[in-house]
């Protein structure tokens, strides 16, 4: 499913974030949205997900039940185990399947480990894992590789390439776009905001 944004205008009081922004995010593709801090990337994806209003224009509506999202904050339940955090979005996953998925994303630990006992990079990978295991039509990620070292970043990017059919990835790091482009060729699209 393509998401069409037409002539969108977003303001916060006297500050115009964007005015007349138009773009098509293609279904079945990885869509990168890049730009400097404060240019409206996060506002745009919040509008696409129906979490934020706008002053003018139009956006193809997406049923919220069909969106999987990883924000800049991990939004995990710290006192729960990795397994129980995953079960919140995928009640049918078996322990063995979860262990297998954890290995693919570079998490070699017990599924019973509490989230509060994980490092920042481990929490980030659990958040991405949880979102990827939710059955959705589109995967929206806002700075998903923040806090990951280069080795783990590549492991996670390969995992996303393997698991994701349609995605919007917000980033300020052009090397992340280049990595996806090298692996997926014409299935990756870039839109820069300034």
From TrEMBL:
Keyword ATP-binding: yes
Keyword check for Thylakoid: no
GO molecular function: ATP binding; ATP hydrolysis activity
Highest taxon listed in the record's lineage: Bacteria
UniProt domain ABC transporter: residue ranges: 3-193
Keyword tags: ATP-binding, Nucleotide-binding, Transport
Protein name listed in UniProt: ABC transporter, ATP-binding protein
Taxonomic lineage of the native organism: Bacteria, Bacillati, Bacillota, Clostridia, Peptostreptococcales
